[in-house]
Records
---
Amino acid sequence: MSSSVNIFVVTWNVGNADASDAATDALLDFSGLAPDQYPDVVMVGFQEVDGSLSNNFTQYLSYSGWSVKIMERMCSHGFIMLRHDTFPGILSLMFVNYTWLPFVNRVEVDTTKLMFESLVGSKGAIGLHAEIGNRQFCFINSHLPAHLADHVERDRAYLTILADQFYATSQLTVLNHDYVFWYGDLNFRIDHIPNQEIKRLIQEGEFSLLLQNDQLSRSMASGRSFAAFQEGKIEFAPTYKFNVGTQEYDSSEKRRKPAWCDRVLWRDRPEVKLQGLHSSVSCNLYRSAPSCCASDHKPVQAAFTVTLDHFQCSQIISMIPVHDTLKNCFTIKILIKREKDAEDFKPDNSDYIGIYREKAVKLKDYVTSKPVTAKEWEKGRVKIESKHFPEKPGNYRAIFHSSKFKSAIAVSKIFSVE
């Protein structure tokens, strides 16, 4: 018995550029994926993002322009935002579809700031821990030290992040997880090949010699950093450095050499390599988005399917909203689907059912909520008066929030309020 979860990762150093609809569409382009590879979880990582607030949307005053664009577009794709985390210059967002929402639990975040002698600024990482199905996942969005000669500092930065990141609730470090996805502007460059020769090889689509001299590939092979990590086959041109607004490489006085600075890596369960097991991670897509020209970097996208052995994608409980016209209320019927697991899901005083609009953007967007008492749990019925639905008529869904699992554990089907 197994289930598969599809994970889509996109990373972009936006260079403090303003958000746009066109770039958002390109970032969240799921074309090229088969129907059974369509994302269940989407991780978005930005670097050098402008931290100023968006004043164009009063309902999103606490979010940047990029956050607003991404949230609205993901909502239209049928996702809800589970996490939004910022660190100076770095932004991480996590979206989940409603099918997998009950199975993404115990999410927690840690951050690491990097300071080196040769730089002052907002280099660092946002790390996110999540229990997805029956496995532990870690997602790292990082911005590592820049410049061609600083590959040693990038290796050191990797080790610093590993040593610093700790997820207190789960008591896990980065490499203790079953799966690690590490992405961002890793800033590794191409050694030994002159600028013009690099450009010629790019134009001819001859990437093999360039990749042989790619600093990250060498660090991975030697074990200096990212040992045991893997990467999809690179069949796209280097994503740095471009003249802003174009698809032409740097023609300024500095004439920076093109490089694959922007990467998505993953690390499989340790026993896969140790025991020679078949990998449970498939990389379905790895590409850049060259049409995004607002920055001197191009975004990179990767799509994965992770097989979760001995896991059934089935909710422990189900909720059925029923409208009682006589009492003018909704009764949320709670049905226990898996008796053997029900003991673990008994609510405490912090558990509640939230009622959401069909097109809710984030998990905090419930229009009303109702605590679930022990008595209501035992009876399997939670009453919510119709007067607490301020935006009726409309379509809604109920989501059961568990403090123990630090997330949702059940999602109802859509129901209508006349």
---
Amino acid sequence: MNENSSGLPLHHLRRVSKPDTDSHAVSMVHFDRIVTKFGRDPRTAHALLTSRDAQSRLIISREHAYVTRKPHNNEHKLHDDNSLNGVFVNDIKINGSIILKTGDLVTFGHLNGRLITPGSRELQPDSEYQYMFELCNCHWKDKNQENQSEAQKLSKDVMSRLPHLLFGI
């Protein structure tokens, strides 16, 4: 079993939803750091949540959520970072934060998330942003470096196209 930087068992979120529609979207997120950020902004997110589908892409906030890991007991807490469309664990919209347990299904955003009351159950079988919280038995270092590299490449690509995206020039 892999260990995190505290010498405790490493956990990850593994994408279980339909296949990535965007090559920059993350499919595996390892929790070796104390804080791991999720969102659609490649400059701030450790785990980039994106899609080629414009409607799917817009349900994710720039800074959507983050997971904190307590080094002394390996507790992983998922926090909604004031996202517009919410964070769901086992199809229930969370209110602020929740401690993750192995086997939890985490879904980022919902098409009508801003209208859903925290604590409500909402199935999302077609979401692109569903992940399973698991103990890690994979080769995580290579994948972590690969994900960070992809986010950096995307950030450079987005920054180079920013004038065109903002002003159409």
---
Amino acid sequence: TKLTGHHHTMTTIRRFTCDDLFNFNNINLDSLTETYNLGFYLQYLAQWPDMCTIAESASGRSMGYMLGKAEGLGENWHGHVTAVTVAPEYRRIGLAEKLMSILEGVSDKVYHGYFVDLFVRASNAVATTMYNKLGYTTYRRVLDYYSGEEDALDMRKALPRDIHKKSIIPLPKPVHAWEVD
């Protein structure tokens, strides 16, 4: 997939590979980005390769990436956004939206999920606003999700398989992190 933007000529979006693990530090230096251990990334690349994508500039610099997975049982079968992050110098050009769109498409067409969900820090208004614009709504608040220090918002977007949009009906009260499956 190719994208064009205002301060770069061409962006390539392709499947994330093991080699990319050595070239994405410029993205992971952001304080809101969780950095995982090598085994974690490798598990995603092995189990859900079609849900792991990276955006690269024309010069080969990593611009942003997405890690996702398919999980759940029955009507809770869904695509999950584990991480979507864009390097600071490449923000506000629609890259996160493009990465999200790819994961939503794979969740729908390949995995036949009912919805896509993600967790975001309750204090991260910029991300929450972006997800709202992409059609995500808050399904529930998860208390003390981030290291017991901050709540998460579990945001969801129904996919075509969820005809009646049951998956996105908000829960009436918050849940604790240990209650999240």
